Amino acid sequence: MRKDLKILILFFLISIKINAQKKISTNQGYVENNKYFNEIPYEDRNGKIIINLQIENKSYRFLLDTGAATAISEKLQSLIKVHKLGNIKMTDQSGLTDSLEVVSVPEINIDGIKFKDIPAFIAKSNSDIFFSCLEIDGIIGSNLLRNSTIQFRPQENKIILTDKSKNLELKKRNAVQMIVTQNQSSPILPIKLIKGNQEGNEYVLFDTGDKNFYVSSNRSYTQLQSQVDIYDIVAKSIGTFSVGFFGTANENEHFLLKIPNLKIGNIDFQNVVAKTTYDENSRIGSDLLKYGNITLDYKKKRFWFESFKKEETIELTEKPWLIEPVLNNQNEIVVGIIWDESLNDKINVGDKILKFGNINYEAMDHCEIMNFTSKVENSEAILIYQKKDTKAIKELKLNRM
User: Fold this and answer.
1) Which of 93, 96, 122 minimizes the C-alpha distance to 26?
2) CA dihedral sign of residues 73, 79, 82, 85
3) Quick check: helix, strand or coil at residue 171?
4) 346-395, pLDDT tens digit by residue?
5) Are 147 and 30 in contact (CB under 8 A)?
6) C-alpha angle with apex 206: 203 to 207, nearest 5 degrees?
7) DSSP 3-state assignment of 344?
8) pLDDT over 90 for what percent of the chain?
9) Residues forming beta bridges with residue 217, ordered by sequence position
């Protein structure tokens, strides 16, 4: 489900795909504790889950990202003892590629649970926006979690880490069988996309590093569209809306889709609006946590979603805006995609966004924008922007679609 113009700039997605050219498995290491059941508070930073942990008896802040492998900043690498494992060519969710160093961290202590010899990528300085703006030192990924069960309890702003899912007294009949990838133990969930009597099955990455509800990969969309009639195409446009680990994605053709029914386990989400992306995987993001508790049992490959209201049908009602903003490589908020073709003679991709409604982006730096929580609630708002070619200041009334 798409958010308002403000929230859409926060696509700082950290999912990383390991290129098969060189094999260094991140699925190494172990948990020293035999039995554990720990409740750990977290900070919700605009849909990002941030926890405190200890390395070498010092406290650090880490983003918890189920769609990523564990990573640490270059600064943290310089402060702790690590063992070098090599380098791997990586591709981020925006389709950009780079080579990253991989090290082994002797111990990561999360509330007394000791994770030993955990492989971690070293984040280069070009990813400083994630670390400096979120004030984090690293990322906890699924490769660290692969021997545990983790439960997200968003109403309490806490997670539970335990050695066995049976400690949570969940009903087995409500579990969904998931896939755990070989390269970094990423959790892959089965979902159903339904329109009338047409039904498509898809496997999606559950990615807490992504603020969205559902994003469709272009590959999956093309494949399913050729087989079943399950999508309503709301709009299509050329542009970019995402920022990955290595920078802003290149401009490509994207579709804005409406799916009448998206089913996760026994829960039906109705009127889902999603964009297509050139990432290899479709994703369910942290927006799912608005609707219920989520549990991942990595060892037994099971997933639970428990609706807060115990309802089996949830309608998504918020509509997208006519344009998509993006944070460019100069850390400026600009127009990334224009969904409404009638606006093409008024505004262009790359025009700088200054104000939207009562939100003054011109007065903020990129970190303030990233951590800003207010949004425009109305169905229409005034956009003030600067033309990228003439530098003229323009005003435009925008509506939701």
Assistant:
1) 122
2) positive
3) coil
4) 999 999 999 999 889 999 888 888 777 778 888 899 999 999 999 999 99
5) yes
6) 135
7) coil
8) 69
9) 277
